[in-house]
Amino acid sequence: MIWDASVEGRSVRVEVWEREARFTVVLDGHPLEVDVVDTGREFLNLLIAGRSHEVGLAKQATGYTVVLADDVLRVELVEGARDAGAPPRKVAAGPLKVTAPMPGKVVRVLVETGQEVASGQGLVVMEAMKMENELKAARAGRIHDVAVREGQAVETGALLATIE
């Protein structure tokens, strides 16, 4: 997942990739290996370079308030960069299967079977690592099938919807 974020007025490119229950977080090109333990409602324990960090997260309309041991940061996620990947690629004709780019929970289903959608239109909102990600149509078409429901947990690669 890739975001453009503003942290206390400073722009930061944030990439998060999960691999075998570990995360690689790249901040402006600098990679960090991170282990994450959910320690309770809105709290995480992050293990970074052998050091443990307790972090509180409070969801806001356009981002998060991050509470650290000695600081509170306001993190704004820049609209348009909050999706789960790089800019849409050219897609060949034929059915397009929209799949989960990461494990998570389906928070909202924004379309229904038979609905016409435009390129870039939101299809499904997923939550992963306490972040909501809107998955968008890579091309215009008609929704042939919606394979998930709100509240459903999905794994990486799970079919979410099909566009014809």
The overall pLDDT average reads: 81
> What letter string, H or E per element, gives the SSE order?
EEEEEEEEEEEEEEEE
Structural class: mainly beta
Largest sheet: 8 strands, antiparallel, barrel
Shape: elongated
Low-confidence stretches: 79-92
**What count of structural domains?**
2
Helix content: under 10%
Strand fraction: over 45%
Tell me the strand order in the biggest sheet: 1-2-3-4-5-6-7-8
So how many helices?
0
C-alpha Rg (nearest Å) = 17 Å
The CATH architecture of the largest domain would be 2-Layer Sandwich
Quick one: how many beta strands?
16
The first-to-last residue Cα distance is: 25 Å
Give me the CATH fold name of the largest domain.
Glycoprotein, Type 4 Pilin
* CATH class label of the largest domain: Alpha Beta
Can you give a write-up of this model?
The protein folds into 2 domains: 2-77, Glycoprotein, Type 4 Pilin (2-Layer Sandwich), CATH 3.30.700; 96-163, RNA polymerase II/Efflux pump adaptor protein, barrel-sandwich hybrid domain (OB fold (Dihydrolipoamide Acetyltransferase, E2P), Beta Barrel). The strands form 3 sheets. Strands 1-2-3-4-5-6-7-8 form an 8-stranded antiparallel β-barrel. The chain has a 4-stranded antiparallel beta sheet with strand order 9-16-14-11, with no helix packed on it. The protein has a 4-stranded antiparallel beta sheet with strand order 13-12-10-15, with no helix packed on it. The radius of gyration is 17 Å and the shape is elongated. The protein contains no helices and 16 strands. Helix content is 0%, strand content 60%. A hairpin with a 2-residue loop joins strand 2 (10-19) and strand 3. It is mainly β and 164 residues long. It starts with a strand and ends with a strand.
